[in-house]
User: Fold this.
Amino acid sequence: MTNIAFLGFGTVGRALHELLEQRREALRTRHGVEFTVTGIASRSRGWLANGMHTPDFHSWLNASAPHVLFESIALNPETGEPALDYSRAALERGTHVVSANKGPVVHGYRELSALAARRGCEYRFESAVMDGAPIFSLVERCMPLVDLTAIRGVFTSTATVVIEAIEQGSTLDDGIRHAQELGIAEADPSYDVDGWDSAVKLCALANVLMGCDLRPKDVDRVGIRALVADSIRAASRNGAPIRLVGEVQRTASGASAHVAPRSCSPNDPFGVVRGATLVTHFEADVFPGGLTVTSRDPDPQTTAYGMLSDFISVTRA
Amino acid sequence: MTNIAFLGFGTVGRALHELLEQRREALRTRHGVEFTVTGIASRSRGWLANGMHTPDFHSWLNASAPHVLFESIALNPETGEPALDYSRAALERGTHVVSANKGPVVHGYRELSALAARRGCEYRFESAVMDGAPIFSLVERCMPLVDLTAIRGVFTSTATVVIEAIEQGSTLDDGIRHAQELGIAEADPSYDVDGWDSAVKLCALANVLMGCDLRPKDVDRVGIRALVADSIRAASRNGAPIRLVGEVQRTASGASAHVAPRSCSPNDPFGVVRGATLVTHFEADVFPGGLTVTSRDPDPQTTAYGMLSDFISVTRA
Assistant:
């Protein structure tokens, strides 16, 4: 019996809980995994372990004694805290950590992976960058000995939705309000609009899959604020809409990374991006025109699914 | 030391040989795999085992005694022969089979997999459908407990290239000749143009990934011959070019499969398809808008890479 605990129980945590219950029987019969929820922690519920309130994270972790911790809390993207501290503490006691957060990946991937290896557990984060579409596991498990020369992508759906609103005649501010109404933009949209979100995700991919050691501040970053509405509309009319594209490329001296708005023709991995579509595009010698993974309209269930697939991985380990 | 043998040594076999030599050191240090080529069989070379001629397949197989057989021979798509017989014989003696051929997958997947399991070896075919882009391993390893409701794709680059030539003003026949000059169309192009190639690949995907038991004759099939040049050009001008799309969908009574030309808007997994691009699109409850894998301009090295990744899988097994 596997004890599981939810650190963060918002949209994603609840969707994961639902998905786990929905697949309970399949998990048992097809993967030999049975689970009990021993802990739920959220801002509104407090630190609940086996139904009882505990005073803080450490008491909660000890009382719920999870084999697997599902981490999906709000965090500071510039430091990865407090998710980084919590993950460290969980791994330290041998608890697998399955995270939907990119912050700790960017700021602590090497440390957390090394710690997990020392403690005989795993740190996994399939849902941290592409909302649950398999990209980390794709490279890790299906592309052995691949030598990635570049990764490109559209990682921030808010930017796309705002640009699309401008294409339709809105101002930037109206576009942002529209994205907020759809529930995809943060209360403070600058994180998405100024390209920070893309930069953080790009670093996570580069560090994990290309062995880089980039921080968001190393990414040459141009957001979408400076775009002129008329250019956005003209590009769209010409069939090559502007999208916010992130890119990391291997160079002689290491890697160069940038995030910037780019006009994308249909003959391009990003020309198809509409609404909440996310794309990661890999380049390598064996894929002359690149290999692209596109996830259309992912929702919280998709993010939950990425965590479920991580859950199956760690229980198999 | 792993003995390997090449059954078929055309463009793909030679590209694989080159890739294996190129990655020899990495295979050793990163996967603990060392290999010797003990057999090469091709129409022009005959049955070479350890540099000596042998009279036929069975003598060759016994003399080269491979641990892994790389199969990439020409075959009859309607029966999968002779690749099916050869694969059966190899698996029977406990030799892993890594195939780039879709025929045996369609006609013998269940039998060959069951045989491999009984003999403690593996039958793998990552390159059989998408020229080496990871799709079978993606679902198998990165999408646990996924319940695929549909698979769609553009599987036949010849059809795209012919349609594109017509878009540019060619006739169907000129388009076919152009594809033949590019080396992507068969001497007998009807297999591609009439949708058989797409139907065979669709069956391979459906049978392996959706548990179907379809044969190409079960696929409702319309090729591109009946298309009117003017409609092709109009669709392209309107930004929604016609592509040959294959689709299998789960139904209450099993599955329905069809291949037909379809107008694809940019807001569509296939709207981006140009030239040799191949696309496989998966639908499942956890991916509301589907998950798409796109491989642009794969070449023989890509197909070889799919076989290399299968090679690493079977040596690990």
